[in-house]
Design brief:
- By secondary structure, the chain is of the alpha/beta class.
- It is 45% helix and 16% strand.
- It has nine helices and five strands; from the N terminus they run E-E-E-H-H-H-E-H-E-H-H-H-H-H.
- The chain has a five-stranded mixed sheet with strand order 3-2-1-4-5, sandwiched between helices.
- Helix 4 links the parallel strand 4 and strand 5.
- The two termini are 19 Å apart.
- This is DNA-directed DNA polymerase.
- It comes from Vibrio porteresiae DSM 19223.
């Protein structure tokens, strides 16, 4: 089934640490829904992980324990988020990180997402190879993507990732790949840099 790459949910988590396997939890989810390349909705919610977060995480994200004490339980938030996703393909910057947390939080509520998951960071490494680094903030600056200067908050990062994603789709269109699928974007992320021109040439046929 053809799934256009411009109809996706772009998401970002803020978390208590790096690994749900080590007991870390999501503390904020932000997401943007794109349909035919147009933003049609967004989702943002803090969630109480059930324990205090470290001072490092609070200073890194600006999310304090007092903010989280007033936030709803993660299960409640993730149930709402599952409905927001529907059957959309998913995109995140450094998707392996966000996928781990999405899988862990969804497992707690026995929820699933049917859509494929693509990584904008891996794709940017292939399509924007001359960027100084492929961290989200550096790509935003390198490509002069409009932003409000907020980083490490879930919705702001999801908004910037969505703009980066659409920019990469526009650049593919300029190269003659006018309607890339989410499957092609995943393929780009897994393809060796030297083989990207041949892959895109095949798509133009």
């Amino acid at each position: 089934m053809f799934q256009p790459a411009n109809t996706v949910v772009v998401l970002d988590f803020e978390t208590t640490g790096l690994s749900p396997n080590m007991g870390d939890r999501a503390i904020e989810i932000g997401a943007v829904k794109l349909v035919d390349g147009v933003k049609v909705g967004s989702f943002q919610q803090l969630m109480n992980p059930g324990f205090r977060v470290s001072s490092f995480i609070s200073s890194f994200t600006g999310i304090t324990n007092s903010m989280l004490s007033l936030a709803p339980d993660a299960k409640e938030v993730m149930q709402e988020f599952a409905e927001f996703i529907g059957d959309s393909p998913l995109v995140a910057h450094n998707a392996s990180f966000d996928k781990r947390f999405l899988d862990a939080e969804f497992e707690r509520i026995d929820a699933h997402y049917p859509g494929p998951f693509a990584c904008s960071m891996l794709i940017a490494r292939r399509l924007i190879p001359n960027a100084p680094t492929h961290k989200l903030g550096d790509l935003v600056r390198f490509k002069q993507i409009e932003n409000d200067g907020t980083f490490h908050r879930a919705l702001a990062d999801a908004e910037m990732t969505a703009k980066l994603w659409l920019l990469m789709l526009d650049e593919l269109a300029e190269q003659g790949v006018s309607t890339p699928s989410i499957t092609l974007m995943q393929k780009i992320s897994r393809t060796n840099k030297s083989a990207i021109p041949a892959l895109l040439a095949k798509e133009r046929v």
